Amino acid sequence: MKQTIVFGSRTIDFHLEYSDRKSLGITVTPDMEVIVKAPYNTGIDKIKEKIRKKAPWVIKQQSYFLSFHPKTPQRKYISGETHLYLGRQYRLLINNDELGIDNERVKLEGGFLKVYTLEKQKAESLVKNWYRKKAEQKLKEIASPLIDSFLIRHKLSIPTIQLSIREMPTRWGSCTAKGKIILNPELIKAPKGSIEYVIVHELCYLVYHDHTQKFLDLQTREMKDWKKWKSKLEKILA
Q: Which residue intervals define the domain YgjP-like metallopeptidase in the entry (predicted)?
């Protein structure tokens, strides 16, 4: 059941569920959706009043999760445009020299991201495919030791972590209780420290499933400078 309250200049939409429980619970999901679970026979006016009292917390949680939403600006795929890889800027250079019919490729060389193709209109698809392959390789390479050490330190009963790379329009990463971690391939454009921060953040969900103070404390123990890398992620891909 969809409901709405107004708090100052903000409108907060929430999904209301009734269940056999004693108290009202409010959850903000990583997608910024507000879910309210209330005992049966609780009046809607009473529910809305409680949500208004918790509105500052709800807004704070939504703002926090918003920082995980990819905001990478659109790039042009023409010579001279800059593109990011692991936090560094590279200037795109479309080159049709030394080409055979099956020799289209993309490579980093010096401060350039060089695209070799006889058809300039193919530069975009070639660069995007290159990014995807790099993400599959590099993100897993960065994640593997972090995952292994986390599982050992916390003695988790999860036999293995399933890691996959998948485009997500509103999130940098996600983690299920069963140990499936998904990373957004756009992360390959961020500095290594920012990538590690997202991975650590998702791993912490294996211990604390809700975004609580205990969760934040664990995240700080795992990565003391996570705020710095979170800030860099927000700035460099904003």
A: 22-235
